[in-house]
Amino acid sequence: MDSIIFLILRRMRAPLLAMVAVYAVAVLGFVLIPGQDDQGRPWHMGFFHAFYFVSFMGTTIGFGEIPYPFTDAQRFWTLFAIYATVTAWIYSIGTLIALVQDPAFKRAVTEQRFARRIRRMVDPFYLVCGYGDTGSALVRSMAQRNQHAVVIDIEPLRIEELELEAMPLYVPGLCGDAAVPRHLLEAGLEHRRCEGVVALTNVNEVNLKVAISSKLLRPDLVVVCRADSREVEANMASFGTDYIVDPFETFADLLGLGLRAPCQFLIHEWLGVEGVRGLPEPVYPPARGLWIVCGYGRFGKAVIPILEAAGIEVVVVEATPERTGMPPQGCVLGWGTEAETLREAGIGRAAAIVAGTNNDTNNLSIVMTARGLNPDLFVVLRQNEARNERLFQEIRADIRMHPSRTVAEKVRVLLNTPLLHRFFEVMREEDNEWACELASRLAGLVGDRPPASWEVEIADEDAHAVNRALAQGRPVDLGMLLADPRRPGRSLPALALALQRGEWIERLPDPGLQVAHGDRILFCGHARARPAQAWVLQNVQVLAGVFRERESRPENEHSSVRG
């Protein structure tokens, strides 16, 4: 509001001064010029009558001469006053119209309205900085899960696209620079319902500034940032940024997981990726043989150490080593789009190829050329721009990496189901056989549909009925939380992946394990199991029915729920 008032006063200062000066001279003239009353006696107009006459005369209303007919001198002064005041009005109105159309004024008004709307928000929300491919994917996912978000982006076109998005929830957006603390404050950084800040712009320095501003102004908030370089990651970590997501390091880590334990990679794809139409098939990256990596940029530098750590032979193809740096093992000069370059790299005996440049056209060309020379290649393909999605679907790569999607999926897991992120970490302590058995169990529960995952806290908000039963001293176990409220004696098509109690995490906890207040439980299974489970968690009468059904069964069956 202060900026709006300042703009109005600065732009309208000259017109207002001109208006005041013209009116003052006109009024003074009518006061000083003598007139005549109806008896022909000399008469001088008072300031009130003069101001009243100039007011309606200056606006060209024209009520007539008051309070007596004017003399020639007064009429001559009236002519001067008419043209002077009309000119002043035209000047003032023209300046006002120009002010209303001024981009700075429009932006100030928009920011003021946006800030007022954010102050009135009553639902918890996350502040998302950047609405590119990553931010838009994350916000859509949050809206589908009934999580509110507020968006800041420096590009007006992206904010216009946000306004046109058909989302389940209204998402307010501000066109502004997220690196400016004022815009963060306008977007609700200090709002009591703001639960966290997510910096997803494509500029590392902006993300760094957002992280610093958030930790200085709201140290209690969760801050998640995207970073594409290790120097920026170290800087962010130095002042306590909660989560730092590097798309290339994240993907390289998943690729290494696929080499070591393909079933763990499969579970990650099932649970960590949203919007998959069918249940993805297992992927088995070759753990032996030659891998050709085209591109030694940020992506290549993240992938190559993972491959070498697995004992895989790697040949690098790079066209500009003077810009990206020369790999320790040397490289084949070229883009990889030419057959001769790939032959020199050993495409004939290669087991896999990684098309990892920052150019989508080159990556598509690399894969098509390589397959023409070696049809049996395992293909890892990097996609940079979302608008090329249709082309990349047709290429049918074994593994496709989209930096923006990789970041969006990981941030979604961190915000929506943080216990799933912890589960992925502790799952790596298990072997591939354990993961294959879990994958078989999940496939048996969901059929050919991707499993859904959700997190429940044993507290009044998520589990009112359970929390009440615990307060009354009645034991509740995990099997009861998976009981089907519509089919007594049967369980829902879901299972508990993990239970967190304090810092302790139990993987695949036993159905007979008793829950306690404050426990956080990660469930996954068929999508219809979640709303059905909510009845058991929240409705006292439904939970009482589960207790009665449990008590009516033989004692040796109390420890589990039948499938």
Structure description:
- The model is unreliable at 556-563 (pLDDT under 50).
- With 563 residues, the protein is α/β, with parallel strands linked by helices.
- It is 50% helix and 15% strand.
- A 6-stranded parallel β-sheet has the order 5-4-3-6-7-8, sandwiched between helices. It has a 6-stranded parallel β-sheet with strand order 11-10-9-12-13-14, sandwiched between helices.
- The chain folds into 4 domains: 2-101, Helix Hairpins (Orthogonal Bundle); 106-245, 3-Layer(aba) Sandwich (Rossmann fold), CATH 3.40.50; 286-397, Rossmann fold, CATH 3.40.50; 451-557, Alpha-Beta Plaits (2-Layer Sandwich).
- It starts with a helix and ends in an 11-residue tail after the last helix.
- Strand 12, helix 15 and strand 13 (378-382) form a beta-alpha-beta unit.
Brief descriptors of the model:
563 residues, alpha/beta, Helix Hairpins, Rossmann fold, 4 domains, six-stranded parallel β-sheet, 18 strands, 15% strand
